[in-house]
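Kindly go through the entry underneath: sequence plus C-alpha cells. Please state briefly how this chain folds according to its C-alpha cells.
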Amino acid sequence: MLISVIGFALMNLVVKFLGNRIPAPELVFFRSVVSLGLSLWYITRRKLKPLGNNRKWLVLRGVFGVTALTSFFYTLQHLPLSAAIVIQYLSPIFTALFATWLLKEVVKGYQWLFFVISFAGIALIRGFEETIDTTYLILGIVSSVFAGLAYNAIGKLAKTDDPVVVVFYFPLIATPIMALLGLTGIVDFVMPIGREWLLLLLMGVLTQIAQVYMTKAFQSSSLSGLAGMKYLGIIFALSFDYFIFGVTYGWITIAGMGLVIGGVLLNLFFKPRKSPKAS
C-alpha cells in the first residue's frame, strides 16, 4: 500500500504538470495504452489467462475504474491538488456503503455519524474556499462513488484472479472507449508536444505500479490494517501544493480537510469486525 500511495502521489503531480491543455479523456487514453502494454507483457511472461476467470466482475471493475479515473482527472486539472485528492478520499465511505449490498458487510449506526462528519468537511471546504468550483466538486464526488464500486469489485475478485489481470481490464475497456471519443470528435484530442510525451509515459508507468500494488493490498487478508496508509497521500498533496504550486489554504479549509479524513479514518478503525467463525 505504501508503494501504491507513493505511485499515485507522483502520478497526480505529473497530471498537474501536464495542465489542462490535454483533455482528461485523452489523458486516460494514454494512461491506458501504457498500462495495456505493461499488463500484456506481464500476463504473457507469467502465462496467465488474459481474460481471467470472473469476467463479469472484471468487466464491471474496468467500467467503474474508467469512470472514476476520468472524473478524477477532470478534478485534478481544475482544482488545487490537495483539494481534489481530499474529495476523492470520500471513496472509502462509498466503499463501505456498497459493501453492505455487494459483500454483505454490516454498517453500524455510529458509522453513519462518521460519514456525516466527512460530508460536513466537504461542505466546509466548498463554503469557504473560493477556488473550489461546484461542478468539479460534484465530479470529485462522482469519482469517489465509482471508486467505491471499483474497490468492491476488487473484493469480489480476491479469490479468482491475479492482480495484474484485474488491472488489465481497465485499459482493455478504457482504450477503445477513449479512442472512440477522440475519433468521433466528441472530445477534441490534441497532439502532445515536447515534454508532454515524456510526462504521459511517466503518468502511465506510475499509475500501473500504483494500481497493481493497490490491488495486491486490497486482495490481502490484512486490508483493514493497510488501508489507513492511503491517507499519507494528503501529506504529499499538501506539500506539492505549497512548495511547487504556491497554493495555500485558510484554517477553515484545512479544518474541512481534517473532517473529511477524520470521518473516514474513524469509520476505518471502528468498523465492525467479523468473528473468527464468520471469517
